[in-house]
Amino acid sequence: MQFFQQLINGLSIGSIYALLALGYTMVYGIIGLINFAHGDIYMVGAMAGFYASKAYNLPFFPTLAIAMLASGALGVLIERVAYRPLRKSPRITLLISAIGVSLLLENGMRYIVGPSPKSFPELIPVHKYDLGLFQVTNIQLLTFGISILLVVLLQYIVFRTKMGKAMRAVSYDMEAAQLMGISVNKTISFTFFLGSILAGAAGIMVALSWTSIDPYMGMMPGLKAFVSAVLGGIGIIPGALIGGVFIGIAETLTKAYISTSLSDAIAFSILIIVLLVKPTGILGKVESEKV
Questions:
Q1: Residue 17 phi/psi, 5° resolution?
Q2: The pLDDT value given to residue 78
Q3: Within 13 Å and on the Cβ side, how many CA atoms surround 52?
Q4: What pLDDT, on a 0 to 100 scale, did the predictor assign at position 58?
Q5: pLDDT value, residue 277
Q6: To which H or E segment does residue 197 belong?
Q7: Residue 291 has what pLDDT?
Q8: Do 49 and 63 contact (CB within 8 A), yes or no?
Q9: Which helix (DSSP H) or strand (DSSP E) does residue 78 occupy?
Q10: Engineering a disulfide at 225: which of 20, 91, 220, 255 sits with its beta carbon 3.0 to 4.6 angstroms away?
Q11: Domain assignment of residue 256, yes or no
Q12: Residue 143's pLDDT is what?
């Protein structure tokens, strides 16, 4: 019974990692950038939801919408200010810029709201359902449902819309896409917006589950989401889902059967092992590059 319970817990946290990993993988697929500020966008989404809910006594869905829009707007602003001017610079320059943005968001939020954790309002009363082999809460079911819905919508946007076609074209060949009349800047900004609203949704779902948020809450989940994206195959949307669920289940099983203090180490060890065996990740393919 405990094993099945831990699987449910792992799927719940894994779906959060998957939402965050999708942001990493979409941005990398478009411009080859590891956006290390992505975990902090997730934190800002949770904070935006917290203050909106407190100020206007909002229920769950308006709070979720505000958090997603705030995160999306922040993602677009970061791309415009910090990444676009450096787009033609070496990748190490963009990486340093991403780390700088991450530190700015964390410490800027700490300065604005203070370092103390905030108690997130109970937007939805928690109910447990006993299904025999395991228990599941309504918050976990909501997390599963929203994660699946957002992933389905993302797949529809990427593969069934004009903007999605532009995203795939820019990902394949940015210069050729521009010659064909596609606005590369708008497409990249839209990609950042999509990835960031997923992070905002993840921030609210985690806040509901953990009931506590703080300016540094995005550090470790952001790293684990990055691990999930690389594990599944960076730049591949289904790979982000597989990697997120895999890391979530591995983390909960480690806490249950080995040690809570080793859960983070196990997650990163799995990444090292997988990359030693298959450097491109689970779904990644080796790409040849002409010189």
A1: -60, -35
A2: 96
A3: 21
A4: 93
A5: 85
A6: helix 184-210
A7: 41
A8: yes
A9: helix 60-78
A10: 20
A11: no
A12: 92
Strand 128-130 with 135-137, pairing: antiparallel
pLDDT at 72: 96
Residue with tokens 């689970």: 282
Q: Which of 6, 26, 10 is nearest to 240 (CA)?
A: 26
Q: What is the pLDDT of residue 289?
A: 47
The Cα 24–Cα 17 span in angstroms is 11
Find, among 198, 202, 194, 196, the residue nearest to 143 by Cα.
202
d(CA 139, CA 189): 32
Q: Which residues pair with 237 in a beta bridge?
A: none
If we measure between CA atoms, which residue out of 261, 260, 244, 258 comes closest to residue 23? Answer: 244
User: Angle of helix 219-232 relative to helix 38-56, nearest 10 degrees?
Assistant: 130
The answer to whether position 229 is within a domain reads no
Question: Is 201 in contact with 150 (CB distance < 8 Å)?
Answer: yes
Distances in Å between the alpha carbon of 248 and those of 189, 200, 283?
29, 19, 18
Residue 62 is which amino acid? Answer: P
The two tokens of residue 35 are 């956006």
CA distances from 251 to 148, 211, 216, 218, 248 (A): 21, 20, 20, 17, 5
**pLDDT confidence of residue 275:** 81
Q: What pLDDT does 286 receive?
A: 57
Q: Report if residue 154 sits inside a domain.
A: yes
Q: What is the CA radius of gyration of the chain?
A: 19
In a domain, 160, yes or no: yes
pLDDT tens-digit series, residues 214-224: 999 999 999 99
Task: Say how far apart CA 95 and CA 24 lie, in whole Å.
Answer: 13
The first and second tokens of residue 96, run together, are 């340093």
Q: Quick one: pLDDT at residue 285?
A: 67
Residue 238's pLDDT is 85
Question: What residue numbers bound the domain in which 205 lies?
Answer: 2-217
Residues of the chain with pLDDT under 50: 289-291
Question: What domain count does the chain have?
Answer: 1
